[in-house]
Design the sequence.
């Protein structure tokens, strides 16, 4: 019996219906698949049933990595590393489908690594990732709603995102304390070009620093009250950060870069 390590966020999926839902979300047949945090291999097994061309798994836990090597033989390639220190773009020639049931405490770092710094030649066909439900709801939130904020703006810049399903604690062993959600991310064909993504990060940070306050203060801080920008983007300073749609934030980042160049 393998004992779950709390430090590595080990909650293993045991619900077969959920496992099916996850692997039915995309066409896996003959595709190259990367699975992050395979654990004891429950999702790995479901993926293999769909006959991928190749399955590479990245598992940080040494014991689990050994266990996977012993149990799956040559059906999978096991990489015993920390996903945060691997350059996954070097692992394959094809575009991949990524499955990740990762610990919640590294989900923000993963979002930074894979989403904010995403190059234009997307290295994946899609990402299927599990999040704490509350975080997932912030990622997919629409403007004018309370969950809308930095996470929604940054994640939706280059990607289309859909929720596949919510998952209750009893689908896992040991049971986590919170509900989870599974999201799928697809590359967008067209997105506004922002030269340096850290500008989008900076702007959204300043705008959402005080999400209930009017836009006046953050706008003046970033744009010195430049009225041309307000007119061009149809922004009224009495609005609040959540009232500006996604595109307006991307355009604001571009205006901010123009101002500085
Ligand atoms: N996908 C499996 C296990 C999920 S638990 C299932 O659904 O049953 C999360 C897994 O991620 C654990 O196996 C844990 O050891 C692994 N993990 C945690 N941090 C990691 C990291 N930084 N890089 C790679 N794997 C990691």
Sequence:
């Amino acid at each position: 019996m393998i004992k779950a390590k709390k430090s590595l966020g080990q909650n293993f999926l045991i619900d077969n219906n959920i496992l099916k839902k996850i692997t039915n979300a995309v066409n896996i047949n003959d595709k190259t698949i990367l699975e992050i945090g395979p654990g004891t291999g429950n999702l790995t097994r479901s993926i293999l049933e769909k006959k991928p061309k190749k399955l590479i798994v990245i598992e940080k836990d040494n014991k689990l990595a050994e266990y996977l090597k012993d149990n799956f033989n040559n059906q999978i390639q096991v990489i015993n590393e920390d996903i945060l220190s691997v350059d996954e773009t070097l692992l394959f020639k094809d575009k991949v489908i990524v499955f990740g049931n990762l610990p919640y405490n590294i989900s923000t770092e993963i979002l930074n690594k894979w989403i904010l710094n995403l190059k234009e030649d997307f290295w994946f066909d899609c990402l299927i990732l599990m999040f704490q439900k509350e975080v997932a709801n912030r990622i997919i939130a629409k403007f004018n709603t309370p969950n809308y904020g930095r996470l929604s703006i940054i994640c939706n810049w280059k990607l289309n995102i859909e929720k596949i399903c919510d998952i209750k604690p009893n689908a896992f062993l040991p049971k986590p304390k919170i509900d989870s959600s599974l999201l799928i991310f697809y590359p967008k064909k067209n997105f506004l070009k922002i030269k340096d993504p850290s500008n989008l990060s900076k702007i959204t940070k300043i705008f959402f620093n005080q999400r209930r306050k009017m836009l006046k203060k953050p706008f003046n801080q970033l744009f010195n009250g430049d009225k041309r920008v307000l007119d061009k983007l149809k922004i009224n300073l009495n609005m609040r950060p959540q009232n500006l749609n996604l595109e307006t934030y991307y355009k604001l980042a571009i205006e901010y870069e123009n101002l500085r160049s």
